[in-house]
Specification:
Blueprint lengths: L8 E7 L8 E2 L3 E2 L5 E3 L7 H9 L4 E7 L1 H4 L1
Antiparallel strand pairs: 1-5, 2-5, 3-4
């Protein structure tokens, strides 16, 4: 049954100011020069959020459960 709760993982673009510790990066984050500053699969921490803000990165693509959209 493909509709099993929590089975579907989706990607969602999220503003850095809305990130919370524990979120998982779905796509590499690069700086203005194209250098990877955060790899896919990295777990967001408070320090990560502060660094992203200092690098003027506005959004990050995160992994989340489809249930997060249906709540």
């Amino acid at each position: 049954n493909a509709s099993a709760k929590g089975s579907a993982i989706v990607k969602k673009t999220t503003k850095v100011m809305e990130l919370t510790p524990g979120m998982v990066v779905a796509r590499c984050v690069t700086d203005i020069n194209g250098k990877v500053v955060l790899s896919e699969g990295a777990v967001i921490s408070e320090r990560t959020i502060q660094r992203l803000q200092s690098w003027d990165i506005a959004e990050v693509c995160i992994k989340c459960s489809r249930d997060d959209f249906e709540a």
